[in-house]
Design a protein that fits this description.
126 residues; two-stranded antiparallel ribbon; 2 strands; 13% strand
Length: 126
């Protein structure tokens, strides 16, 4: 019941604003600026996520190639794993991209190489 009265009040205010021609520019511009700021912010976040994803993929590729290069007759041992991890760390600096929990690991027994990184927004988490 209360929500219905409240909604009717909002509709009444909006209809008065719709009929009035003077002084409507400021609310329209304010609403448009909020939407524009949200679109720009979303674009920046998506661009940053794409950058982190592409750099992460390049670091994984470099790590896999370095690990494969150091494989000996013992297979993918700790030496090869260490080399791959070193190359990953060199090519993907998590602090540069404000990413946390960036890691490079091999899953057994499928020998699938997997890396993860979760970008965090600087403006929210500072």
């Amino acid at each position: 019941m209360f929500a219905g009265k409240h909604l009717k009040g909002i509709i009444a205010i909006l209809s008065v604003l719709y009929r009035a021609r003077a002084g409507n520019v400021l609310p329209l511009v304010a609403g448009t600026m909020i939407v524009a700021a949200a679109l720009v912010g979303g674009g920046v976040d998506m661009g940053r996520a794409y950058l982190v994803k592409s750099r992460l993929q390049a670091a994984c590729d470099a790590a896999v190639l370095a690990g494969r290069r150091t494989v000996t007759s013992n297979g993918y041992d700790t030496t090869a794993q260490g080399e791959a991890t070193t190359y990953f760390g060199t090519n993907f600096d998590a602090s540069q991209f404000a990413a946390r929990d960036a890691s490079f690991r091999r899953q057994l027994p499928t020998a699938a190489i997997r890396s993860t990184a979760r970008p965090r927004l600087r403006s929210i988490q500072r």
